Structure formats: C-alpha cells, structure tokens
Amino acid sequence: MTEAEAEQSRPGDEELLHAYAGYLEAQRGMSPHTVRAYLGDAAQLLVTLPLQPGAAVETSDLAALDLTALRAWLADQSRRRMARSTLARRSAAARAFTAWANRTGRLATDPGLRLLAPRPDNVVPTVLAVDEAAAMLDVARTRADDAEPAHLRDWAALELLYATGVRVSELVGIDLADVDLQQRLVRVLGKGGKERMVPFGLPASKAVQAWLAARADLATPTSPDALFLGVRGGRLDVRQLRETVHQLTALAGVRDLAPHGLRHSAATHLLEGGSDLRSVQEVLGHASLATTQRYTHISSERLRAAFTQAHPRA
Fold first, then answer.
1. Under a CB-based contact definition with an 8 Å cutoff, are residues 264 and 272 in contact?
2. Looking at the structure, do residues 157 and 302 belong to the same domain, yes or no?
3. CB-hemisphere CA count at 13 Å for 270?
4. I need a labelling partner for 256 at 20 to 30 A (CA). Which of 65, 138, 162, 231 fits?
5. What is the distance between the alpha carbons of residues 115 and 96, in angstroms, rounded to a whole number?
6. Is 60 helix (H, G, I), strand (E, B) or coil?
7. Any idea which of 78-87, 157-166, 285-294 has the lowest mean pLDDT?
8. 14, 1 in Cβ contact below 8 A?
9. 156 within domain boundaries
10. pTM of the model
11. Is-contact 196 286, C-beta < 8 A?
12. Which active-site residues does the annotation give?
C-alpha cells in the first residue's frame, strides 16, 4: 500500500487490503495504477463501516458491509459532487471488492450483486486537430535539434505515443526488444497482460532511431532494458512524460492535454482518415468495440462543425 492509502485506512485492515491487492495483481492482471485506485476505494469504503467489536487494533467490521452500506458510501460521494464517471468506477471497485470478499469467505453474501452503477456521462475526450498534433510534434523535433538526450527521448516518446495510440503506461513499459524498426512494429503489453502488435510510421521510426543513438548517454550499468529512460537511468516515469506533454503543448500554442489525449487524438484521426472501427479497436487494445465507438461521435461533431461553417445552406 502507498502512504496515501495507509493514511485513509484502519491499521487492522492492512492485512485484508494486502491480500486484496495480491488478488487484483495476480488473478485480475490489473495494472499498478488500477490496483492503487481499487485499493484506495476499498480503504475508503472500509472506514465508513463500524469498528469490529473486541479487536485489538482499529479494524472495520466486514459483517456490516451490506447493500445499505454500499449505497450510503456512494451517496456520500455523490453529495461531494463527484463526477458520474468517478462514481461509476468506484461502484465497480466496490463490487469487485465484495465479490472477492464473498469468494474468500470474508463475507457471507455478496451485496455488490444488487448494487446499481450510475451511468457515466458520455464526456467527449479532448483531442487535438491534425494540424495541432503536427505543430506539437514539430516543436518536439525542433527542440531535439540540440542533441540533448532527454529532448531526443521526449521527441521519440511523443511521436510513438501519437503514432500508435498506446496508453502512457504501455509506452513506458516498452522494452528495446519490443521494437522492430525494420517492420515498424512495436509489441505492447496491455491491460490484463494481453499483448498486441501495433504499427507506426516513418516519422516515429526516425525519432526512435535518433533517440536510440543517444540512449547510452542516459543509461547506467543498472539500467533496465526499457526503450525510454529517465534522467537517472531508470525506466521513464509516467509523471515525467505528463509534464513533457504539458510543456510542449504550451510551446506549440495548442490546447493543453494529458498524454492520454494523444491516444484520443490518434484514434480520432484514424477514423477521420478512413480506418474501420475493428482496426482501430485492435490498435488501441480495447476489449469492447463500444469503447472505440465513442470516437465516431468526435468525428461526427467535427464534420458537423465543418459543415455548419462552410456549407452555404447550413
């Protein structure tokens, strides 16, 4: 557990949460980020329960975890004006926890089976226009002209992120052996440990080759085989990449967005360029086609805006 999670949990719940974390990692195959989110939600849920009678240290009374307790917890989140998407995720986290607790004999029944999840808002993600994405990547390339290894790395990371539409966590997890520059393919380990091969274009290939020529300047004897390294020689951190994206969008004078916004942009531009939904689904690694379909809404909105602005009878 992280320090933040420890602060919002009771001392007597630590063993329970540790066992739950092991289940999420080993059996559900969740990413470290998702495990942290689910653990944090479980810890928050547990502290709303009464204390277990007679316990030597403060321990939540799991016997009190019923449908009423679950609904009360979500209602409190709603009163705090949490986004519907956040409520939906926390509802899913609660159901995952109660199902696990029931299967492992910690709960006699599974109250999460009757917990209805709020439908998340159909929020259209922020995406860059094609020319905005090009402007940001041009700024990254120009900044790399100084041959500074960190700048070459940032250029390559952003080119590959936009070219492949991979998740940021997937990008930083790529190893040297995963990249085939000749075929311009990269092997990606996605959610649930699922592998997929994703193609990338010539601009990303050139940027990656330039970075590889300078990678040794950041590598140390103990560096991992990661494609992208941080300034201390370890695997590039997601937070560092997030800061880089914010910096370069500001330098390019385009709308600010998180690295995940480049994934949204790549998906939207693929569909606008004529790619079919199934192909985009494979590239992005979506388990459900419904997840990919939301990008058709973005493309339709752009088409409608262009029509309204340009057509004489709009």
1. no
2. yes
3. 26
4. 231
5. 11
6. strand
7. 285-294
8. yes
9. yes
10. 0.63
11. no
12. 167, 191, 260, 263, 286, 295
